[in-house]
Amino acid sequence: MAHRGTGFFDGRGHFHKTPEEATIADLAGILGKIGEGDSLAPGIAQMLLERRPEIERLFGEHDTMLQDYQPIGAGSKVTRLEPRAG
Questions:
Q1: Which of 28, 30, 44, 73 is deepest in the core (most CB within 10 A)?
Q2: Is 42:56 a contact under the CB 8 Å cutoff?
């Protein structure tokens, strides 16, 4: 007998039973092959998803630091010193 089910698809169109599995597959795809033999990317992707709140907080802090950041020499009044001769 036919029955109804729910599934989730990653960016490549592969079926997954849970949203987490689909997201991990997409994250692993972004990371690419890591390591020798079987790729470590799926395990790293799972850790990224599990630690998402911490990672988002870090990216938020990073974005805050970048708001007023200007690399040296980009409009600053810092004068580059020439190396001393001999």
A1: 28
A2: no
Asked whether the beta carbons of 21 and 27 are under 8 A apart, the reply is no
pLDDT tens digits in sequence order for the chain, 86 residues long:
998 889 999 999 999 999 999 999 999 999 999 988 889 999 999 999 999 999 999 999 999 999 988 877 656 566 667 777 76
Spatial contact of 15 and 9, defined as CB atoms under 8 Å apart: yes
What tokens were used for 78?
């810092």
Cα 66 from Cα 38, distance rounded (Å): 37
- Which distant-in-sequence residues (6+ apart) come within 8 Å of 41 by Cβ? 27, 28, 29, 31, 32, 33, 34
Q: What angle do CA 26, 5, 44 make, to 5 degrees?
A: 20
H helix runs in the chain, sequence order? 19-31, 41-50, 52-67
